[in-house]
Here is the input.
Amino acid sequence: MTIKSWPAAERPRERLLGRGASTLSDAELLAILLRTGLPGGTAVDRARELLGAFGDLRQLLDAEPAAFCATHGLGEATYVHLQAALELSRRYLLSRISRGRALGSPQEVRQFLQLKMRCLPHEVFACLFLDNQHTVISYEELFRGTIDGASVYPREIVKRSLALNAAAVIFAHNHPSGVAEPSQADQRLTQRLKSALGTVDIRVLDHFVVGESEALSFAERGLL
Here is the structure.
């Protein structure tokens, strides 16, 4: 049985058009990009097999070209097609947090920071500088360290904030270990930075810890 023979309400493309892309499973979204199945199976069957073979969607899309193309039924054309779709989605999300644009939701900020910091092999401390309307002035990676940590200097952050005429900031740093859980040191640092910036009337709106699969918000945790 082909997908075309399925009831219209069950076909991935029709469901996407009628209900939106968020209603589709990973396998169904992948099937739309793959377009065709292998002999004896649909594109959805093929997508499910691939997700099972690689473990999940992320591991499939992060696979090296050689490993991807060595899988039965895949090749360079499919790899290029999926990577192009992935890069378009990255650029779309990054464009939503750009200079001169007011921030939307905390989820937008979270997605932006995950795209920027999730795969970095070393620890980075970054800052989103905002004006009094919460419009983005700049995103900057201020300090870099090793996998064990980064040295962060409050005086330098205050100096940079004043130079950009920022009214508010959002901090972020990644945990290369993959675990997005703030340490006691992270919490102490945040309070030091909040105190230092408070002396020049600059608000700290949030601090995100970016891990392997999530970004934890200090504000949502009540840690600010």
